[in-house]
Structure formats: C-alpha cells, structure tokens
Amino acid sequence: MSIAGRVDPYLDELVAIRHDLHAHPEIAFEENRTAALVADKLREYGVDEVHTGIGRTGVVGVLRGNGGSNRAIGLRADMDALPITEKTDVPYRSTVEGKMHACGHDGHTTMLLGAARYLAEHRDFDGTVHLIFQPAEERGGGADFMIRDGLFERFNCESVFGMHNMPGRLFGSIAMCTGPIMAASDIIRIVVRGTGGHGAWPHQTRDPIVAGAHMVTALQSITSRRVDPIYAAVVSITTFRAGTGGSVVPEEIELGGTCRSFLPEVRDLVEAEMKRICTEVAAAFDVTAEVDYARGYPTTVNAPEETELAAAAARRVVGAQAVETDVTPLMGAEDFAFMLGARPGTYIWLGTGEDRPWLHAPDFDFNDAAIPAGIGYWVSLVETVLPRPD
Fold first, then answer.
1. Residue ranges per structural domain of the chain
2. How much is the pLDDT for 1?
3. Are 338 and 144 in contact (CB under 8 A)?
4. CA atoms of 140 and 297, how far apart (whole Å)
5. Is 174 left (phi over 0), alpha (psi -120 to 50) or beta?
6. Does this chain's domain 3-182+303-385 share its CATH topology with 186-295?
7. Does 360 show up as a binding residue in the annotation?
8. Is 101 annotated for ligand binding?
9. Residue 296's Cα: distance from chain center in Å?
10. Taking every annotated instance into account, which residue ranges of this chain make up the domain Peptidase M20 dimerisation (predicted)?
11. Is 22 flagged in the annotation as binding?
12. Which end of the chain is more exposed for a tag (fewer CB within 10 A), N or C?
C-alpha cells in the first residue's frame, strides 16, 4: 500500500483538524491556540519531544527513527492566517471577523501533523526529524525569529525542507527547481516635500504631486533600462497619497510600493537606482524626496543536492509524470528563504487543482483532497534523505 493510502484510517481526523484551524485563524505571532493544538497533537501522536514558544509562538517536535545515526533534517510548515475577510460559504468558515486562512497554512499545518503521526508510528528512517511549525510567515518573518531564537543551535539540521500548496497547478503534481524559486521582497516608501499653496496660483507653490507623478513614470525605467533583460525585477508603486482635494496644493505626498528580484546584484541595483531617480527628479522640480528602502524577505534558493532528493521522494508518491523539476520561479516571496539561508534545502509546490481560487483571495479554501499527497511527500522525503541501512 502507498504511503498516502496508509493515511486513510485517520484522514477524517486530519480533515477535522484542518477545518478547526480554518475556523479559528490567527495572524502573525498570535498563533497561541494553533500552537497549543499542534503541541497537543504531537504529544498524542508519540513524538519524542515537543518544544513550544520558539520564535514567540513556534513549535518544534523532535522525532527519532529506528537506527543509530546522528543525522537530522527539518520539515517546516507555517501556521499563520491573513487579515482578510472570508467570503466562502463552507460550514467551517472563519469565526474571526477580518481574519482567514487565505493561503492554506491550515492545510500545511495539518499535512505536517499527519506526517508526524505516520512517522511516529512507523519510524522507518535512520536519524532525527525536526518538525518545525512556524509562526508569522505572511507578515513578520517568523522564520527569522525562530532562527534568531536558536532554532538550528537547539535543533541542528543538516538540511531543511518546505512545501506550499499551489492552486492553478495540476492536482497532485509537485513542482520545484534548483536555484531561486521565489523572489526577494522589499518595501519602498517615498516622501516628497514641496511648498503648498492655492491651486489657482500654482507658480507660487513647489508642487509635490507633479514631482511624484514624474517619479512613478521614471521609476519604471529601472526594470526596462537599467536591469539586464535576461534577469528579472519588478518595481511596483502601489500607493499614492496626496492632498485633501479642492484648491489646495499639498506640502507633502507619499508614494509606496514593492520591489522584487532574484539576484543580490539586481537587488542592489534596484535600490541604488530608485534613490538616484527620486533624488534627481525631485531636484528638477525644486522639491525634496526621502526614500526609505526596506529589505524584506531574501530570495528563496533551492540547493541542487537537496532538490534532487526532493524530486526522487516526490516521484515515489505521485509518479514521475507529475513531478516538474525546472518550474519557472515566481515573483512572490516566502520567508522560508531565511531557513534556506541558514541550511541547504528545498521548497516545493504541491498542486491543488487548476480551477481553485488563487492564494490570498477571500474565497480561497485549501483543498482537503491534497492532504494525503502532502503527507506522502513528507514521509517519502524523510525515508529518502534518512534511509535505514540495508
């Protein structure tokens, strides 16, 4: 019987756990109920050690296999929800106004719990598995918090692995690539200051709105004229806050947005060009510009050896025809990048159906039918990376 098939006896329980998590979403660093449920289930399943409060609300379970190896790996699932109002009619819809599991982290948590139960019952691996339940992936960089709280000093891992559900991809498929798979994500804030006044006498003002409008246009030249076309970068201005209307020219406006890139040198270039362009455009209009470029999550980079192992493990579960190893990277960001910066590993996408609502949509709901494949992948990965000696 397949690994996924062996999960059938307790699949109903896992689905119930997923629905419970979905109904009680908790956003970044508020995952107290979720963490308590995770810790209780790990103890119930017979996990050897359960540690809580890591990186504020993170949980780590320690599970030892049959054998004497001192090798160890980490499996990571994120637990947090999003500040979005749910618009589904499922019976387990969010009970918390303005918060919902719109990215499937309830499913991620459930799949790793299912893997924990299976691995604790069978222990058909040689070494130690650290089950990492991480807070605050969406907002707050919970992976970085766990690392700075001593994650890998306390639970040493030679490699670490992550997984995300992916609507829009063939159900049950698994996709990955070597190298960058998700982009670095940076936040920009630009404050333009001039001299306010009456709109009927614009010559007596130094209008920050006109300067800001030119900045929005000029900043698009970074990706089209400064970044090498064979590389990728995104500069998106997503906010333009200005004025109170009527005849008043404001003294100050604010622009905001995001920048995405894969390569460190491209990231450096985008930041430098953004500051240069804003400063020089401001000077041309006799105003000033203050640019705050805040670096967020780094690029999520998959290591070659671990990606090969992940692909082999995936083929055992879903078949070679459903495994893609050269998937096109996405410009979305993922704080698992911090863990991959500390340890080699791989991040994969589990297809949940081509007709499913997209991530972060108010009508999103994790596809429960994908739970067995996700558990199967985790178990297969452990048995592939930490094989028992013949």
1. 3-182+303-385, 186-295
2. 63
3. yes
4. 10
5. beta
6. no
7. yes
8. no
9. 12
10. 189-282
11. no
12. C
Q: Map tokens 């719109």 to a residue.
A: 102
Tokens (6 digits) for 36: 């308590």
- Parallel/antiparallel/unpaired status of strands 323-324 and 174-175: parallel
Burial of 201 (0-12, 13-18, 19+ CB in 10 A): exposed
Which residue in the block uniquely carries the two structure tokens 């690392």?
147
Query: How far is the C-alpha of 95 from the C-alpha of 83, rounded, in Å?
Result: 13
CB within 8 Å of 264: residues ≥ 6 apart: 299
Fold of 186-295: Alpha-Beta Plaits (3.30.70)
Q: Please answer whether residues 59 and 42 qualify as being in contact, where contact means their C-beta atoms are separated by less than 8 angstroms.
A: yes
Q: Enumerate residue ranges in the chain where pLDDT < 70.
A: 1
Q: How far apart are the C-alpha atoms of 2 and 53, rounded to whole Å?
A: 35
Contact 273, 230 (CB under 8 A): no
The model's pTM is 0.96
Q: Is 354 annotated as a binding residue?
A: no
Q: pLDDT tens digits for 315-334?
A: 999 999 999 999 999 999 99
pLDDT of amino acid 277: 98
Residue 103 counted as an annotated binding residue:
yes
Q: Write out the catalytic residue numbers.
A: 80, 137
